[in-house]
Amino acid sequence: LAHTDWQHLNGLIGSADGNKFRLFAQGLTLDYLVLLANQHLQRLDGGRYRIARKDRSLDLEVVDSWQADASRSANTLSGGESFLVSLALALGLSDLVSQRTSIDSFFLDEGFGTLDSDSLDIALEAIDRLNASGKLIGVISHVEAIKERLPVQIRVVKHRGVGNSKVFLPDATSL
Fold first, then answer.
1. What is the CATH number of the domain that holds 121?
2. Do 67 and 126 reside in the same domain of the chain?
3. Where are the transmembrane segments (predicted)?
């Protein structure tokens, strides 16, 4: 490499504390995570949203194809939209960390209680699509509408005070 090439490279990633290189490497990893998450988001929402890095920083924004590709802060998303984007990021992160191993099961712990009925429908439809694609999705929730929509349930019910519970399995009695 010529001296000017080394100077250019130093300008991009060189710093005494290593911070420029660290940010550069994190940016590459984040770009790959966004690519993987967008593949999942495409399947979950039919292509309405796309996750993007904001101004080459480590911040993310959402591009809305229904609004002429307007970029939106994640803070402006509804509960259902936020759920889909978060789920896509979680699935993308799973893909990223499981390059040599397939992770085919997930647990979603709560997060449904703040969703309105339309957003809850969107979230449950996304879970149904994931299930149909071969993913096993466990949902931990107290939301009654979710209990009605999920065909297989393991129920945990308080029994006789603090620290005691009964577990009810599908087509079985309690344990």
1. 3.40.50.300
2. no
3. none
| Helix residue spans in 60-116 (DSSP H) | 79-97
Q: What distances in angstroms separate CA 47 from CA 23, 59, 74, 142, one per listed residue? A: 29, 21, 17, 30
Q: Are 12 and 64 in the same domain?
A: yes
pTM of the complete model: 0.71
Note whether 9 and 55 are same-domain residues: yes
pLDDT value for 48: 92
CA dihedral sign, ordered 78, 81, 87, 92? negative
**Per-residue pLDDT reduced to its tens digit, 75-99:** 898 888 888 899 899 888 888 887 7
What lies within 8 Å, CB to CB, of 14 at 6+ separation is 20, 21
SS3 114: coil
Q: Domain residues for 143?
A: 104-175
Show the CA angle centred on residue 111, arms to residues 120 and 57, nearest 5°. 105
The predicted-structure confidence for 24-56, as pLDDT tens digits, reads as follows 888 899 999 999 999 999 988 889 999 999 988
